[in-house]
Amino acid sequence: MDILPSIGMGFQTALQPINLFFCFVGVLTGTLVGVLPGLGPVAAMSLLLPTTFHISPVSAIIMLAGIYYGAMYGGSTTSILVNIPGESASVVTCLDGYQMARQGRAGPALGISAFGSFIAGTLATVGLMLAAPPLARMAIKFGGPEYFALILLGLTTVTFLASGPMWKSLLMAALGLFLGCVGMDVKTGLSRFTFGIIELFDGIGLVPVAMGLFGIAEVLLNVEQPEERSVVEGKITNLLPTREDWAASLWPMLRGTALGFFLGILPGGGAVIASFASYAVEKRVSKHPEKFGTGMIEGVAGPEAANNAATGGAFVPLLTLGIPSNAVMALLLGALIIYGVQPGPRLVAEHPQLFWGVVASMYVGNVMLLVLNLPLIGMWVQILKVPYPILFPLILLFCLIGAYSLNNSITEIGIMILFGVLGYFLKKLEYEPAPLILALVLGPMMELSFRQSLAMGDGNLLFFFTRPISAIIMVIAIFFLVLPLIPGVTKNKPAVDL
Amino acid sequence: MNRDQLSSGVFFLSGCLICYSSLPYKLGSLAAPESGLMPFLSGAAICLLAAIGFVTATLRRLKGERWAALLRGRAWQRGLLIVVALLAFVFLLKPLGFLLTTVLFIAFLLRAIVPQKWPLVVVVSVLTATFAYLVFEVWLKAQLPTGPLGI
Fold first, then answer.
1. CA-to-CA distance for A134 and B96, rounded, in angstroms?
2. Chain A, nearest residue to B89 by Cα
């Protein structure tokens, strides 16, 4: 399929009033959760997922995608004005963004962040549009061994990049794989570990687990020690960056875009690592690296562009291979399956309206975000002033409604509370929950491809190394597994909350 | 004992339990795997990783790393109250209906965790419940439970 007619069809879909509405709701909600510390895109998407069951899959994915890239825009606002990252991908923005705000340059910091996000988001969408179809065509040739190897690679890189010791994140992935086994066996139909609970026959729901681990647990941790927020006072002016600001920011933005897009494609990459990497690159290429952390606009432009570009990149493996590269994409994968759309190499061919509609909606959404964010800065500042003790009951209520309305079942709420308490202790004990979510989603697919491969190879485990593509991917996966054993490798690894 | 020794110990036992519970589903052979194989392997992986964790934590313990309290200096009672409120929501939802349960739930959290003034508690809880009812029940037709008054 040629790109131009396809993207034309995509715009036809994205510009339908209903899809424009859901795109708007998505980016607005995304910005809101980005602005609010303690509520990330995973929690927000899990909250809103049940409400999308009544709308078309295209509108639903457009909205959910909007939440993701919208959150990247919103996260910078809190970093710049409060020095608290609204979103983990905006941690680095605090370093120079807040210093700029303290020097009375909050306006240019917010402005360059919005423009950088827009430019990067748009360029990343172009990258997604160009990279996805050929990759999907190649992936059609993939069989069980290749899929197993890819999933293994995804899990090992995520566990390698997660914060803390690797044994902990691998353990979380193993727990997630086990939880993914709960429910009906995909091959035999045998019910496993369900204890007669009907709601578990289709497996443990991704939404209550994600809401528990990322929503409830986060609230339980936050109320223990509510952070002090001091929002930068005074009127925010000069949102449009000056010529000098542009000159200093343009190359960091472009470098951040390229870096972010490629890191976004990699399993486990994503927005957080992209923003850290971009900051490191900018510091390295700068003529004044010692000034980073004192209010350098390059330290805002690069990372903000990188985290937005990474969101576009993250869609590539999801939409072409059906393999999510991070927890947000895992949730989107779950959503697609709920809507009856099988993500993978055939998605572009079988559901062109969905694929191209979502791609086109990203262009539209990025424009909406730019138009929305600059005039609405004042409103976000007011929202940031709402005290957490008033905010958290509302977050909990949305979690409860979201979990209940999945199947109109109290059991789902119970599962969410259980995982909320589990998530609280996991965080306290420094276990990263993202690999668990990823493995929970990938578990059934991994089990199926593993059993298919074993049957194909007559039980020979070396069969994975007899096919070129799966062999290469397996070698890379094993490389990530053994990498932490090399002395010094993990010492320099940034602590990243995926 | 330090934190990682305790948590890896718990995970090791959990892994053993998973392995044991997988056996009734039959493991099959590598050439013809059955339903129990994948959960068994997951359980075995949990055991192995927990054992690695326990060994590294023990080595750190020998170097002097001690137990660091999880909850000391933290207002953990607030979290406990929230969990109680969530469980109460679960038990009251069907008999009282969504609207009334939500008003009580929000009001309780606003008063019990970081006490807010009564007028604010009443306004926020009633407005939130009404807004949520209108959005989820009336607009999105989420079929939330109704109480004695039919709402």
1. 55
2. A400
Distances (CA, A) of A114 to A372, A383, A459: 10, 18, 54
Write b or e for each residue in A7-37: b if 16 or more Cβ atoms lie within 10 A of its Cβ, otherwise e. Answer: bebbbebbebeebbebbbbbbbbbbbbbbbb
Phi, psi at residue A472, to the nearest 5°? -60, -45
Per-block average pLDDT, block size 10, for chain A (498 residues)? Answer: 78 90 90 77 78 83 88 81 73 83 84 86 84 79 84 80 80 93 85 86 84 85 73 69 87 90 75 81 83 86 88 83 80 83 80 86 86 78 79 86 81 92 91 85 86 87 87 88 69 50
Strands A191-192 vs A183-184: parallel, antiparallel or unpaired = antiparallel
CB spacing of A396 vs B82 below 8 angstroms:
yes
Domain boundaries, chain A: 3-492
Backbone angles phi, psi at B28, to 5 degrees: 70, -160
pTM: 0.79
> Which B residues, 72 through 91, put their C-beta within 8 Å of a C-beta on chain A?
74-76, 78-79, 82-83, 85-87, 89-90
Partner A contacted by B109 (CB < 8 A): yes
SS3 B33: strand
CA-to-CA separations, B104 to A7, A478, B93, B113, in angstroms, rounded: 50, 53, 11, 14
Give the residue from chain B lying closest to A404, CA to CA.
B144
